[in-house]
Design goal:
This protein is α/β, with parallel strands linked by helices. The chain has 2 domains: about 190 residues, Rossmann fold (3-Layer(aba) Sandwich); about 100 residues, GMP Synthetase, Chain A, domain 3 (2-Layer Sandwich). It is about 40% helix and about 20% strand. The protein has 11 helices and 9 strands. A 5-stranded parallel β-sheet has the order 3-2-1-4-5, sandwiched between helices. Strands 6, 7, 8 and 9 form a 4-stranded mixed β-sheet that branches. The longest helix has 22 residues. Bound molecules: xanthosine-5'-monophosphate. Xanthosine-5'-monophosphate binds next to loops. The site of xanthosine-5'-monophosphate (XMP) has 15 residues, from loops. Its EC number is 6.3.5.2. It catalyses: XMP + L-glutamine + ATP + H2O = GMP + L-glutamate + AMP + diphosphate + 2 H(+). Pathway: Purine metabolism; GMP biosynthesis; GMP from XMP (L-Gln route): step 1/1.
């Protein structure tokens, strides 16, 4: 019978046997899979594991610093790399969703490759790939595995992709990953986090991306997500977030006419992201959240709630 404890024991041994005293590099995303993979590898090989956590500037508000601190608190050998400006530059003027994904993926590969080159004698690349990533042609979990695939079609491989691969979670499902994480003592809050796309807020800002739009969406998203937690709704939702729409609409503030941004809130129930239903959030919650957003976030004067299911709508708007 499969148990998280026996999985940990067997996997730690298998990792030790496989990589010996070789150095391993791993990209952390802040998500469940890469975190559990890192903690398992850390247990197996300790300081020979070099983790890199890249800030693409498209993470949630304060996420980079908070998660980096959390990783350090867990004893991981992790380097935080703030490459926000590099991603913003790469995205300047791009409106097409797939071009944005490519630009973000390519920037990630460049940054990661630069960092991997600073480490000497690395032999292995570890990834938090889980079984559904293996069977699906496109990883929905982002991170290196998703970007590698799209880059692969483009041409020459960066050096870090020539490393030998170690994927300790390759044979297990998300719920098992969470149970393994719990056995390893990872904070339940981290293990219960909603999925978040690799391109981050980049595919939730419709149209071109600017630092100001990222700031606005981070504020909106934080109010929404913190509200879900305060109202004990967070764990009933599979994934939630906000989209910044490329339309302005008319409003009033005092006796002034405003012409500002509109945001769409989205919260869905799902088991695997392949199909999803919008969540019937309480009206009182939506009312309070909408007021908070419009009162507190400068530049937004209208909030709508997305009541579309997947299919035919997708979870993300891009
Ligand atoms: P959709 O929007 O296709 O999303 O219903 C299904 C799940 O996949 C996530 N998603 C992505 N994750 N890179 C990722 O790493 C991407 O480009 C990407 N696009 C969508 C989405 O957040 C949802 O969990």
């Amino acid at each position: 019978d499969w148990t998280p404890d026996s999985f940990v024991e067997e996997t730690v041994e298998a990792i030790q046997e496989k990589v010996g005293d070789g150095k391993v590099v791993l990209g952390l995303s802040g998500g469940v899979d890469s975190t559990v993979a890192a903690v398992l590898l850390n247990k197996a090989i300790g300081k020979n594991l070099y983790c890199i956590f890249v800030n693409n500037g498209l993470l949630r508000k304060n996420e980079f610093q908070n998660v980096l601190d959390q990783y350090k608190g867990m004893g991981l050998n992790v380097k935080g790399v703030d490459a926000s400006q590099r991603f913003l530059d790469a995205l300047a003027g791009i409106e097409d969703p797939e071009k944005k994904r490519k630009a973000i993926g390519n920037a990630f590969i460049e940054v990661f490759d630069d960092e991997a080159h600073k480490l000497e004698d690395v032999k292995w690349l570890a990834q938090g790939t889980i079984y559904p990533d293996v069977i699906e042609s496109v990883s929905v979990n982002g991170g290196p595995s998703a970007t590698i695939k799209s880059h692969h079609n483009v041409g020459g491989l960066p050096d870090f992709m020539k490393l030998k691969i170690v994927e300790p979670l390759r044979a297990i499902f998300k719920d098992e990953v969470r149970r393994v994480g719990a056995t390893l003592g990872i904070d339940p809050e981290l293990l219960g986090r909603h999925p978040f796309p690799g391109p981050g807020l980049g595919i939730r800002i419709l149209g071109d991306i600017t630092a100001e739009k990222v700031r606005i969406l981070q504020e909106v998203d934080a109010i929404f997500i913190n509200g879900l937690k305060e109202w004990n709704l967070y764990d009933n939702v599979w994934q939630a977030g906000a989209m910044l729409l490329p339309v302005n609409s008319v409003g009033v503030m005092g006796d002034e006419r405003t012409y500002e941004k509109c945001v769409a809130l989205r919260a869905v129930e799902s088991t695997d992201g392949m199909t999803a239903d919008w969540v019937n959030l309480p009206y009182e919650f939506l009312q309070k959240t909408s007021n908070d957003i419009i009162n507190k976030v400068k530049g937004v004067n209208r909030v709508v709630y997305d009541i579309s299911s997947k299919p035919p709508a997708t979870i993300e708007w891009e």
